[in-house]
Amino acid sequence: MPYSIETTALTKVYHKKAVVDRLDLRVESGSFYGFLGPNGAGKSTTIKMLTGLIAPDGGEARLLGLRLDRKPLDIKRRIGVVPEDLCLFENLTAMEYLVFVARMYRMPRNTAYRRAEELLDWLGLDENPKALTLEFSHGMKKKLSLAAAVIHDPELIFLDEPFEGIDAIAARTIRTALARMVQRGATIFLTSHILEIVEKLCTHVGIIHQGRLVTQGTLAEVSGGAGLEEVFVSAVGRTEDTAAGLSWLGGAGA
Q: How far apart are CA 78 and CA 62, in angstroms?
């Protein structure tokens, strides 16, 4: 299976506007794919379509070799998702939440508890086992969401802004965890506004702008030696001096 994700003309329309416009993605199996774009480019909408949360208005998608519109449950059993808004059950402890998720995947109870314990220890979430999730910091919630996404050992993992709003220590823990998952053969599809993290982690990159795929390929192919930031800024059409109109910064009328 050369591709874990393959879309053809994938489209989503809201209020007569295509927020994802005929998207053709190719995500190689075993790769760490960074999906980049400015706010409103269509990144989260793409993930929602690929994970079956919303239906596309056109085109098709194949995940792990299966048609999403024909085998949605088979696909969902084999993927993990960290959504941007997390969607945790905050009146449960971390252990209760992870075991609940594991059992939803029909994991045997003993296996569910063992994996939950290992994940909580690995991610540093086991210091106060009686604490409810609502008491967690934002970074702790991000780590718990990641644990829930991988407890069933998925082949394909979707991460929507997993590093947003977390401190450097939590970010490092998550980066290490993700790198190990790729080493074990998982495919990761990541959206992030932090280009430095994408350059550190990702093997492949795609850039979307106004719903359309601008470019995709290996990190080296896309950056072309110029640096990912320069390529990204050029691709989304923001090459002008955006401070030029601010008089107190030396722009026009200073």
A: 13
191: closest CA among 216, 213, 158?
158
Please choose, from the candidates 54, 55, 131, the residue with its C-alpha nearest in 3D space to the C-alpha of residue 91: 131
DSSP 49: H
Interacting residues of 105 by C-beta distance below 8 A, sequence separation 6+:
77, 151, 152
**pLDDT tens digits along 198-209:** 999 999 999 999
Q: Quick one: how many helices (H) and strands (E) in the chain?
A: 9, 11
**For domain 1-78+156-165+182-239, is the CATH number 3.40.720.10?**
no
Q: Which two tokens stand for residue 115?
A: 């994996």
Cα–Cα distance between 111 and 25 in angstroms, integer?
35
Q: What is the mean pLDDT of residues 86-108?
A: 95
64: left (phi over 0), alpha (psi -120 to 50) or beta: left
Q: Give the model's pLDDT for residue 254.
A: 47
In the predicted model, is pLDDT for residue 171 greater than 60?
yes
Of 203, 237, 240, nearest to 222 (Cα)? 203
First to last CA, the chain: 59
* Domains of the chain, residue spans: 1-78+156-165+182-239, 88-153
Q: Which residues pair with 20 in a beta bridge?
A: 12
Does residue 247 carry a pLDDT above 70? yes
